[in-house]
Amino acid sequence: MSPCQYDISTILSVMPHRYPFLLLDRVTSLEPWVSISAYKNVTFNEPHFQGHFPARPVMPGVLIVEAMGQAAAAFIALSQKQAPGRTPDGLQLPELEGRVAFFAAFDKVKFRRQVIPGDRLDMEVRLVRLGSRIWKVSASATVDGQKAAEAEMTAALS
């Protein structure tokens, strides 16, 4: 994977999400159509920590999965931007501008470690299968090198 830095302005240019639901802070590496690495800085002032759980704040597992899904969406969008004519097997993707990918399935989801304020959630996403409108990826999230979550995810372009 080639090292690179895509900051928040680049992420905002390819993602439809906005605060408080954008769960990516930076992309650290991208190998178009192969894999992406990104992270989210977990901070105490995020709205979900007010109720999950005030005395012992823990990032909800569903938001960890959402963060991995957002990394996958950024992976597809940035891959198309960086290598538009080099999709696997010469696949022709539709224009992504104004389109949204929605989760279609989750498989093999496992949570291994709690994620708490102050953590940096590092995500790695690898392409499993790419169709013109259906994509499957494997994703993992770690904190300080310890696996926090993993999943296989399928998304459908709407």
Description:
The protein is of the alpha+beta class and 158 residues long. It has helices at residues 8-14, 61-82; strands at 3-6, 26-31, 35-41, 101-111, 120-130, 134-143, 146-157. It has a 7-stranded antiparallel β-sheet with strand order 1-2-3-5-6-7-4. The protein contains 2 helices and 7 strands; from the N terminus they run E-H-E-E-H-E-E-E-E.
Q: Average pLDDT value?
A: 94
Please give the alpha-carbon distance between the first and last residues.
29 Å
What Rg do the Cα atoms give? 15 Å
Second CATH tier, the architecture: Roll
What share of residues is helical?
Answer: 10-25%
CATH class: Alpha Beta
Q: What fold name goes in the CATH topology slot?
A: Thiol Ester Dehydrase, Chain A
Spatial strand order of the main sheet? 1-2-3-5-6-7-4
User: What is the 3D form?
Assistant: globular
For the structure shown, list the relevant keywords.
158 residues; alpha+beta; Thiol Ester Dehydrase, Chain A; seven-stranded antiparallel sheet; 18% helix; globular
